[in-house]
Amino acid sequence: MADVNRGNRPLSPHLTIYRPQLNSITSILVRITGNALMVGAILVVWWLMAAASGAAYFGVIDGLITSVLGDLVMAGSALALWYHALGGVRHLIWDTGRALDVASADRLGWAMIIGSVVLTALTLIAI
Predict the structure, then answer these.
(1) pTM of this prediction?
(2) Mean pLDDT across the chain, nearest whole number?
(3) Which of the residues 21, 62, 63, 81 has the least number of beta carbons within 10 Å of its own beta carbon?
């Protein structure tokens, strides 16, 4: 059956005219941090396996993890963990039917961003 309204239908917004919203950016970052957490988890498991396999191999891996690069990766993993956890809390709030309007969703998005940075700083200070 032919579509008689083909020229009258609205088109989807194109990326060049679409302005990303805080809610969409924070949602995308939750997915990215979930994947980044896998990298941090693999490094921790690698470190634990090296500890179980012997002192020589553990020394190499421990040197890598405790280097400046390893410290940056672990700090990034802490940030990703807090951000992802706060994203989960945001979804729990939404699951109750609360904070679904744009202003509340924006406040929750900023709370995720600021909260994850503050909690990461507190975590790094505590270590």
Answers:
(1) 0.81
(2) 90
(3) 63
19-41: pLDDT as tens digits: 889 999 999 999 999 999 998 89
pLDDT tens readout for residues 75-109: 999 999 999 999 999 999 999 999 999 999 999 99
For residue 90, the 8-state DSSP code is H
36/7 Cα distance (integer angstroms): 44
All domains of the chain in start order, with CATH: 22-126 (1.20.1300.10)
The tokens 């410290």 sit on which residue?
A: 71
3-state secondary structure the chain: CCCCCCCCCCCCCCCCCCCCCHHHHHHHHHHHHHHHHHHHHHHHHHHHHHHHHCHHHHHHHHHHHCCHHHHHHHHHHHHHHHHHHHHHHHHHHHHCCCCCCHHHHHHHHHHHHHHHHHHHHHHHHHC
Quick one: residue 98, left, alpha or beta (phi over 0 = left, psi -120 to 50 = alpha)? beta
